[in-house]
Amino acid sequence: MVSGKASVLLLIGLCVLAMPGAAGTSASGDHETDLDLPVIADDDTANANAANFAAGLISTGGNDRNIPAFSGSGASRHFTLAGNPVVSYGAIPLYPGWNFVSTPKALAAGNNTAAIFAGVDTAGHSLLRYDAPSQTWVALKAADTIRPLEGYWVYVAEGTDVPLDYAGASPQAPPSRTLAAGWNAVGFSDTEPATARDTLLSLKDTWSVLMGYNASARAYETAIVRNGSGEHSDAGVMMPMKGYWLYMTDDGTLAAIGA
Asked: Which residue, of 108, 115, 200, 258, has the fewest CB within 10 Å?
């Protein structure tokens, strides 16, 4: 039985694994944990073969649950936030390969579906979201709504920007989202950066680990841990337009910090 503290340490270890030296191989071959991140798997027939994703997956255990990673020198990679990078809050920046993205606000009717990505060359990959309760990947259709607080995986052949059209202010309450115990793909809900501590305040003590993905570097960022210290401090910053893996120790409700 793994203790709560040991589980957190295992989770932190996910972001410092060495990169695989060859497609489909494990970083070390012997990392065992029951808290692995989900496998990216596409529901499209053309992409159903796992070999299509082998070059972008790194095994974290023997249960076939992998996390996206990319071949490298073998050294772990970290993304260090130096000040507040310039971000266009009216567009989602996409880099070649997989991107973990979100929308910081509700989108305007008529421009709030997966069709906003219609002009993007996805090289045959689907736009994906992760359904935490069923622990399955869902391929979005063009008519599916893109919602705040949800993280989406988007593959692009070439870098581009996807412009956003935000809904106007209304009497409607800001969005919230029910999260399940385990890994959830969440979005950041403001147009200005904020600390993880402030952003996830509505979850109280039900969250434990937050992990972002740096698409330009093709690497996971250093994990942020609730009540953590040093490089894992929950004073770490969350950024607009980005998606995050969030580990929940129990069900909870995430409230937006922007409207």
From this structure: 108
| Both tokens assigned to 86 | 């310039």
Neighbours of 170 (CB within 10 A): 8
The per-residue pLDDT of the chain, averaged, comes to 75
Instruction: Tell me: do 145 and 198 sit in the same domain.
Output: yes
Q: What is residue 89's predicted lDDT score, i.e. its pLDDT?
A: 65
Do 141 and 202 lie in one domain? The reply is yes
pLDDT tops 60 at residue 20: no
Contact 223, 12 (CB under 8 A): yes
Residue 190 has pLDDT above 90, yes or no: yes
Residue 61 shares a structural domain with residue 100: no
Torsion of CA 80, 249, 31, 210, to 10 degrees: -10
Q: Are residues 221 and 134 in the same domain?
A: yes
Report yes or no on 79 lying in a domain. Answer: no
**How many residues are given for the chain?**
259
Same domain, yes or no: 174 and 251: yes
pLDDT digits (tens, 9 = 90+) for 148-181: 999 999 999 999 999 999 998 888 789 999 999 9
154 and 231 in a single domain? The answer is yes
Encoding tokens for residue 59?
């095994």
* pTM of the complete model: 0.72
Does some domain include residue 74?
A: no
Helices (H), 134-227: 196-199
Closest to 74 in 3D by CA, of 22, 13, 39, 37: 22
